[in-house]
Each structure stands twice: as C-alpha cells, then as structure tokens.
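Model: You mentioned two targets. I'll fold them one after the other.
Researcher: Yes, keep them separate.
Model: Target one:
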Amino acid sequence: MKSTVLTAAAVAFCLSGSLALADPLDASLGEFRDLYRELVEINTTLSSGSCTEAANAMARELRAAGIRAEDLHVIVPPDWLNQGNLVASLPGTDESARPILLLAHLDVVEANPEDWERDPFTLIEEEGTFYGRGTADDKAMAAIFVDILRRMRTSGYQPERTVKLALTCGEETPNNFNGVRYLIEHHRDLIDAEFALNEGGFSLLDDDGNRIFQGVQAGEKTYQDYRLEVRNPGGHSSRPVKDNAIYRLASALTRISGYSFPVEFNDTTKSYFERRAAMTDDEQEAADMLAILRDPPDEDALARISANPSFNSILHTTCVATMLEAGHAPNALPQRAAANVNCRIFPGHSQESIRQKLEEIVADPEVSVAFVDPPETTSPPPPLTPEIMEPIESVTQAMWPGVPVLPSMAAGGTDGRFLTPAGIPTYGVSGLFMQPEKVRAHGLNEGVLVRSLYESRAFLDRLVKVYAGGE
C-alpha cells in the first residue's frame, strides 16, 4: 500500500489538531442535524423512493459549501433514473499520494408506514434515540461524510491526499442495480483510491450502554442465491403418486438443513475470537473461544460457540432456505416446486464449488441446483496493515481510553464486496456504538442513539483527517 507512512508521532500530531476541533464540531451540530434530517426524510426505497433526489440534495449541500462544480458528479444510469449516485472530491496538495474514498449508500430497505410506530420517513427524536428508516443503515455515515467534506471546505482545511466521497444506490437491492458496481464499470477514475472507508465495522454497547469494542470490518462472506427446482408431469390430486414434486423438494431441503459446512478460520476471524476471548467476563465462553482455535477445534467448545448465531455465522459457509413456491392449483398434483437457498460463503470458496456441494448434499438428480444470479467476483479479505490499523487504534484510544479495536469479517454483505476485488481495499469502521436489538436495521422502528451518532461524527472526522493528512 503506497501511502505516507503514519508513525505514532505523526498520528499523535494529527490527533492533537483534530481534538482541538471539539468546539467547532459542537458549534456546527445543528447544521449537521439539519443535514441528517434532510437525508433521512428523503424516501430512497426501491419501490417508491429516489436516490437521485437524495444525491442531488447532498450535491447542493456540498456546492453551497464551496466544492467546485467540476468536483461534483451526480451520475444517473440511463435505465435507472431513480438510482442516482453522487461522487465528490476535495483535491489534496500531494499529487503523489493516492486518494482515500469515503463510501456510503443512499438507498434503504422498504418500510411500510402502517407497520411502524412512527412515520419511517420522518426523523423523530425520542428519549435519546433518532428513529426513521436509514437512521443507522446507512444514512448515518452518508450524512457524516457529507458533513466532513463540507466542513473541510468551509474551514479551509487542505488535505495532503485527495478525499473522495461516493454516495451510492442499490446496496440493499444489488440484484436489481448496484451503484458501486456501475461506477467501477463506467466511472472508475472518479472513485479510484488507495483504500475506502465504509459501513460494516460493528461497534458494540452492552445492555447498560458501556462500550465493549470498536469493530473494524476486513472482508466479508460471499452472497449467493441458489434455486432448487423439481419438475413433474403432475396430474389429478385424487390420484396421488409417490413421485410428488413438493415432497422431493422438501426432502432436499431437509438434507440441506441437516448439513453443517466445515468450520474454518482466516486471519481476521482468528484475531476476532482471540481478542473477543480477552473481553468477555464469561470464563466458559472465553475458554471456548480459544479452544475452537485449536487444530482440531474442541468439539464441545465448538457446539457451545455455534449456538450463538452471530458467532456461528462467521465460522463457516452457511446455506439456508428463504423462499418457496410450488403447485398451480389446489386440486392438482404439483408440476413444479422450487426454493431459494441463500448461502453466505466463507472466503476462499467459489460459488460453483458450493453449488456442486449442494447437489452432493441433496443427492437427487431430479432436483436441479442453479444460480439465481451470475456469481460476483470475489477476493481475499483486505490486509489489516499498520497504515490502516494504527490510526483507528489511536483515534479510538484518544476518544475512548481502554476500548479495544476488534477486527471482524462480515457475515452479511456491503458494497466492499465490489470494491475490494476491483483493487480498492475496503474497510468498515464507523465509531457508531450500538445495541443490535435496539437498532433494528432492516426491521421495524429502526433507530440509532443520538449520543452514538454524534460520537461517530467526531470519530470519523478525526480519523479521516489522520488518513488525509494536511491542515
């Protein structure tokens, strides 16, 4: 990674200047809140919203702050007029230093207002929490990054590296359209960077609101849907036969449900369990986390750790049935039965190898196993180099002394899965501490703690300035 090497002294120098920004950050808190509100209250769902409207709104904010017109690009794909993306940049003073990219997505998961306790497209603050669709995923980081860029510009801050911003659409529905993939294919020069900062670095609060760890995501499992299908001549339901498409499919799914892919580790997940073991007060859990790292893993410890869905999700490839369709009439034998099996594939395995494994598990030639969508390009997790980790560690300790930094691998998926294979290593880090059961991203009544949002803003402000250099 070609960059200005950030020694401990250099990081400390950058932090000393950033820490002095506490008062200006507080003074501009109202402006940030207005920006955040504006973004949350623009509906950006696939069904009825518009990322293009949000991209234009954020472009206006940056233009008003003095970002040059030639450094602002609202990119709307011809076939997806509501799926607009914003790319902006603040040029650096060192032409030999490669840019950094700040990445966030504008689109949000569908939200039916009738199901919510509050209007999902109105920012509402209640008892220390901001409620609304996208308040956490991912308009928090989108608003923070826009805020950072505009304050850099209005304060006269001159970064050494060029700082780029990409606010994209389609992260939540990539099988329809994905803005990052589109930008890589059509506007690579606008987003090219040495590395990118993104969502995905989960940071945990305990039930009492105490910070447990700051998460840094490096790499993620590969997302792939498979269609299992059985076809049959069918017939009249009054004359049943043993060869029933629904029964064949059900048997295939039962075999898949009973199979567990082998446990495996990479550098990121090894580090995660080693460090997590040192954080827990549960002696049995700590011992189990270390025991599963043995070769071979301790089976009893593995059974206990695997019972936690969050831990189990990063131990191996997982495949689970998520959708069913079968039959054409209530009084007819089914002519077709199909299921969607969603797999999250551990890095290092191809989508085709998992397809073949599913065929082996099903063990029925009458059940076809096919890709729902063409496989994406994959790559190994990006390296957690000192140039990446030392600034995160330093800013974390400056703000929250004693809070450890924990590398992790995402079991879900972010737009990093497109950028990292394209040669732009992407890391998830936010400083946004949360209690998962209270955030409810993708679910009803999504919300984020007000305190956590404002702290994330201060953290990312300082971190970006360390990476960017300048003054």
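Model: Target two:
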Amino acid sequence: MYVKSAAMRSGGSGDESTQSGMAFRTLMRPAYPNPFNPQTTIEFSLKSEGPMSLAVYNIRGELVRRLLAQTMSAGAHEVVWYGRDQNDASVASGVYFARFVAGPISMTQRLVLVQ
C-alpha cells in the first residue's frame, strides 16, 4: 500500500474548504484503473483534519485489508491498493468494495480485480 497527498480537482459546492487556493470537499473519487491488475489508486479529499478510515471488503462483507485508519490532514490524498490482504497475500480475482469513512461522510465503491 502506498499513501501520498496529491493535488486534485475541486468538485461542486457544499462541504468545501480552501487550502493553497484549492477548495476541497470530503469525498472519495472513483478508483483508477478499475477493473485493475495488479493495482488501483483510490483518491479522496478531506475538508478538514480529522479521523478517517479506508478499507477493502470482499463480497461477503469480510475485511480484506485496512488501508488507512488514522487522523489525516485536510486536503487531497491517494492510496494505492496492490490487491493484497492483511497478511500481504495476493487476493483472488473478483469484486471487492472500498469503504471510506470520515466523520459523518461514508462512501463505498466497487473494485474489480482481474488476473
């Protein structure tokens, strides 16, 4: 897993904040590429600093890998998931779900791993 802050586009109105001249909303953007092999990038932004989590689940709702569970700064960030579970073993081809939670905001998106 790889985590970094990134410059991202601002989108829409509502839950926005300004950092270095850019407006941010608390949200998760679509992962890319998707379908993916061997890795996918998940971008998200936070309006303000605070606790957040990002995890991947299988179709049965079981935790596959917790990517982040920490306090993050306001702004844009990205995480790369390499298709590995908590034990760092490669997972099988199939459908997975990325779940993003930051304060009252929670979002889920489908990820498809093809091998």
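Researcher: Noted. Anything on target two?
Model: Residues 6 and 99 are 20 Å apart (CA to CA).
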